[in-house]
Give the backbone structure.
Amino acid sequence: ARVNPCRRCLFVQAKGIIQQRLLRANVRVKGRNLFLGEATPADHPIASPLRSDFHGFPPLYTNVGSEEALLDDALRLHEKATSAGVDSSLSVAEGMQHVFPFLAGRAPEADEEIGRIADWYRGL
């Protein structure tokens, strides 16, 4: 993969390569095991918010990139929360990948998302 040396951010141009590396099956299993330990089953709500009962939840803000490997999960989470009566806000940033807000200060898209999060929070 070639790296784009633009000032605003370094992006891998080969579409999907970051997701493929971050979300390989063995990496997911190791991460799950580190997070859950041996005592918590993988189908427990703490393992995935999609397994939670959202009734009574406070307002929820979910951000995701349009190139995010977990985009479908974020969309489902928003739908499930909304269906349960939660005041749920969803922000989908075009062209962004996993955890893009961590690029704040280095990518305008991340700075814009941080601004949207702050606006949402101030509106509570």
In short: The beta strands are 3-4, 11-12, 60-65, 88-93. Residues 4 and 83 are 41 Å apart (CA to CA). The longest strand covers residues 60-65.
